[in-house]
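Bump. Still looking for Extracellular calcium-sensing receptor-like structure tokens.
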Amino acid sequence: MQFVKVGLYDGAQHSGKELVIEEQAITWSNQQTKVPVSVCSYRCAPGFRTAACRGQPLCCFDCVPCESGKISNQTDSVDCLPCPEDYWSNANGTSCVPKVIEFLSHDAMGMTLTVIAVIGAFLTITVLVIFLYNKGTPIVRVNNSELSFFILLSLTLCFLCALIFIGEPTSWSCMLRHTAFSITFSLCISCILGKTLVVLAAFTATRPGNNIMKWLGPTQQRIIIFCCTLVQVLICTVWLVVSPPFPYRNTKYQQSKIILDCSVGSDLAFWCVLGYIGLLACVCFFLAFLARKLPGNFNEAKYITFSMIIFCAVWLAFVPAYVSQPGKFTTAVEIFAILASSFGLLLCLFAPKCYIILMKPEKNTKQHLMGKVIT
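Sorry for the wait, here they are.
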């Protein structure tokens, strides 16, 4: 044992300064100059909780970070408190903050889809104006101008109905989303189906004794379109009456977010709506496929076949993405499917006609379209 002078007491000094300690001269065990700490564990800061160490005294504990969704705002908290349902813990685990609300808003993604939808509607209206201006030319007349106008109007509505999916879901927007989309697409595919029947009947009617065209006049074509669309309207009406879509706050899929989405209400009605559109597309594809090799320089059945292949491929690819996970990306995929299938129909059905009207007017003759031009 050694006695070391580490300070002195001078009673002549002012009050409070009598005792002078030289801390550098104090040496603790193992020749250390730091004062030893007489506790087993340091205190746990806010955002942590104490966890006792097995086999150690009560003063020995570990500091464990609070789990996600729980907080501790005091030092040496024994437990972490859970946040309310619409709140989540911050990064430090010291306070509860409101959960992030996620839906497809007019952000970069939403604005991009909006611009694409508006461009698609503008292109469709442009094609409609071109067809109206050239409605007396053979290429417009031979392909049933009235049905072409119906298809272009329904395609315009298809592009515009994609805009309903962007923004915060409400009761009205949820009911309007799928019903407007399903009815407009049913109208469009019904018009294409009517056009396909006319093309198939027109070439079949050239055979002797075949008078099938009298059963596919303008009135009958309108009845076919009306009846095919009416079936979808009835399905949507029953859907809205029995179990309509409604806005839904999904807090289960991602606990740190509130996903605002539209619940379809009745899954059966939703898949019936999609299934009916698929049925119309398949029937249209089958009939167009049968007529694809009929004579004529401009056999429209070939283009209808291509358009139905694109349409079916887009929606078959959409289904797995739709059922995979909720959120704004699923809504964006649904909008993309609407836009991609609409662009596919527009380009396949009307791009070749517009090319001939605008770039090759010499081919816009009845003889050339019927394959009677001798070169």
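The mean pLDDT is 81.

Edit: fixed formatting.
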